[in-house]
Input
Amino acid sequence: MLPLVALVGRPNVGKSTLFNVLTRTRDALVHDQPGVTRDRNYGVARPEGRPAFAVVDTGGIAGEDEGLAGATARQARAAAEEADLVLFVVDGREGASALDDEILQWLRRTGRPTVLVVNKTDGIDAQQAVNDFARYGLSDRVAVAASHRHGVDMLLARIYAHLPEEGAAPVLDDDPTRIRVAFIGRPNVGKSTLVNRLLGEERMIASEVPGTTRDSVSIDMERDGRRYRLIDTAGLRRRSRVDEAVEKFSAFKTLQAIEQCQVAVVLLDASEGITDQDATVLGYALDAGRALVIAVNKWDGLSEYQREQAASMLSRKLGFVDWAEAVRISAKHGSGLRELFAAIHRAHASATKEFSTSEVTRAVEIAYETNPPPTVRGHVAKLRFAHPAGSNPPTFVVHGTRLRTLGDTYRRYLENFFRKRFKLVGTPVRFVFKEGSNPYEGKKNELSERQVARKRRLLRHVKRK
Output
């Protein structure tokens, strides 16, 4: 296991920028606005020629104990308490503040080794900026300008001077067998609450304030002998309603998470029904071709009559994804979670199932014989053979003639036929239709030397005009 370095400080001192510099990524959201980071975000720093170590970015500690600010501070403190080394990041331009003093007092109580990182020293006297914090009594002080990568080598030297060889950082592994599950939905439907319930700890900040989650955060877990990677995401809204820069970055990270996952769990709020925003989120998952599970949250808060109405609405409005399993859950109280994981596993198994060319071709033949395509302007499409072309989602290439005459109805018939025959649940099924052609068209037959000699002999007897 890798040793862990925690970045701690008040809001807007450049912790996320420093995180991106150390990990050489752009995983942390960066914006010139306080409070962008809220949840803990883990990464790995791999300096050239040196041992790797884990880094955790945290939200700014704002000196409040209630609401989002208090929850963010608790996340930062949890990161510092589990770290092997704390980088206390301060603003060199603004100098020491009362909030910095308060954070330092708390850090001293943790007993963790601490390095004072004076950031934003570009364009000013860096040594003077460091001296302004001399009263803190920290022997390890280093000036950096994270946005310009100044002072990073000196900072790394201080880090390695304190780090143990081994640690217990909760770093994501490279296990390809992990099922990658992204929890997506519109704002405030309970995604973070559900992830916390699955993990059994307050790993994510959960609040009734819409837009609490700003970044996509991945956490590994194991359940019933299977390994999963859970990805909590920011709430998605229609593009026309997204105006703030931070929200645009958050939406981009969520769309990235959808592309990277294998199963997308779309959360709906049973008490509010299915909204246009829910349909938008479903559209993103369908466009990416992800396996899909619909989790109807807050089901336990409905009366019997409300449940009947909600079930009717689900059936009516989600008819276009009737192949996806809908599971009734309560993220707050933990009901329905076993059924949710069972649905996730079935969707993943269907999306990653492997097929042989012979069984796919046989399925096309049976589908064609059972229900031939209709005649269109005197022509009937012929399906000759097929083969698998990929997974997640399962994709099949069908070869034949006059395939352009196949209408949407027949294509849906093929999709439903394949679902039923191969028992595919919770995953889109895609077809690629290719017109048959003569494989030798445009190719000349190469003659052997004997054939060329014979051709010459015959040409001697041809009368020339």
Remarks:
- The chain has three domains: 4-162, 178-352, 357-435.
- The longest strand covers residues 382-390.
- The radius of gyration is 30 Å.
